[in-house]
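Quick question: what would this complex look like in 3D?
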Amino acid sequence: GAGVSQSPSNKVTEKGKDVELRCDPISGHTALYWYRQRLGQGLEFLIYFQGNSAPDKSGLPSDRFSAERTGESVSTLTIQRTQQEDSAVYLCASSLGASIYEQYFGPGTRLTVT
Amino acid sequence: KNQVEQSPQSLIILEGKNCTLQCNYTVSPFSNLRWYKQDTGRGPVSLTIMTFSENTKSNGRYTATLDADTKQSSLHITASQLSDSASYICVVSASGGTSYGKLTFGQGTILTVHP
């Protein structure tokens, strides 16, 4: 019955390493979203899943970013060959469906690339 | 390009006072508009969601308005409290096509309530 959870809560990695961020949505929520929020900036849409499919990947900033979702549940966001500009808080949200349904946000993963 | 612009960028008010935050958008086709409150270090929390046919919606001391013709929305906070200090984000959802379900976020208005 818990809300959206994300792990890890904090991640420090060296430039050039790969990282994997995890999101566990609220059970039964078919839509899942990933956002990025740089320090002092607004939220930036990355990708959205309906079920296990991603109808909109338009926000992924480069081919170093990829995401998948399995079992209409957990999702992972992978960043390959991290760069310092990837440092941000990565937020995941889920909702019962797309569009009108309210999105519930997780606490985010703070990624720092050194 | 779909855009959401908010004003002011930041606002300082005294506890107990009212304030109004503005949001202009160019998202098309329009589905709905949301206002979120984001406390520092936390994920956003929804305050209101309005569709095309709704022009006002309240949630406690928060009242949102929507003018779909001029593509403007406002969030009015009544009798502000210290706990209202946060970033308030206007978010617009598009409908149809590949933009279905995608939200466009404004940069937010940072509200600080002083005692």
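Answer marked as accepted. The interface with chain A takes residues 31-32, 34, 42-46, 49, 51, 89, 93, 95, 98-108 of chain B (CB under 8 Å).
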